[in-house]
Amino acid sequence: MRDRWQQQFADAPDCLIGPKRPRTVLHVLDIEIGGDEFVTMAGPCSVETERQLLVTAERVRQAGAQILRGGAFKPRSSPYSFQGLGIEGLRMLAHAREATGLAIVTEVVSEADVPLVAEYADILQIGSRNMENYALLEAAAQSRRPILLKRGMVATVGDLLRSAQCILSHGNPKVMLCERGIRGFETATRNTLDAGAIVLLKQVSCLPVIVDPSHAAGYRDLVSGYARVGVAAGADGMIVEVHPEPEQAWSDGGQSLTLEQFDALMTDLEPWMALAGRRSYVRAALVEAGR
Length: 291
Ligand code: PEP
Ligand code: MN
Description:
By secondary structure, the chain is an alpha/beta fold. The protein is about 40% helix and about 15% strand. The chain has a single domain, classed as TIM Barrel (Alpha-Beta Barrel). The chain has 11 helices and 10 strands. The strands form 2 sheets. Strands 3-4-5-6-7-8-9-10 form an 8-stranded parallel β-barrel, surrounded by 7 helices. A two-stranded antiparallel sheet has the order 1-2. A hairpin with a 2-residue loop joins strand 1 (about 25-30) and strand 2. The longest helix has 17 residues, at about 260-275. It is globular. It binds phosphoenolpyruvate and manganese (II) ion. Phosphoenolpyruvate binds near residues 71, 128, 129, 150 and 212.
């Protein structure tokens, strides 16, 4: 790696690729993140009902997702918005995991909740709004769970790497970096997908990089295109919001794909994954589903 990046990111040393620091491959159940395969995490923004979650989980599994997302603790920008089902939502996630075999990624918003959420989650999500919540980063690190660290909406790549370093420094090397769009001057989309950051992170960092096209775009008709950009930029996986009835969703309905749109996304991405040199299980999943 060039000296320039070594210097620029000198305070995130354990995040950087080096002769003694090859790429990190994380193991979650039987899934490898950061290896040859492009990994898909999909599911609703919020866990709402048992049925909503199970229907979504089964469908995204059949379409090739390996990990189910769903928020039980939601960090909402408005105090009047739905804040999540809490432990009831975690129990629904556990049920969906049992029913489908999918691994679970779910957000933790407070350090006090880390032990509880870590009991249910295969991967702990630290959301954008908490990327610089150092007490939470430390508590999450101590859980020893793999962590999906989302880039803050006004965080630079250096800020993201420093937060990742904070987790690594507390003894947990199992970190994934997530590009989910940043605040810019553009208001037509919800955020601005920083595809360049994915390219840069893949060049400088040993940590897997995940793209979140849903929160970057904000509108479901853009999600597929943003996902394609993420694959082309070199992302190791994606996290996508999917809902059986997006218009009825309790959060982020506007950017949630329908079940059919998610099927289409997975099929559409296949040649792009191949071009990017990625294996995917989509084809196998489609065959299994008889389509
Ligand atoms: C989410 O994943 O639903 C979420 C709140 O994401 P972000 O932290 O990127 O806004
Ligand atoms: Mn969301």
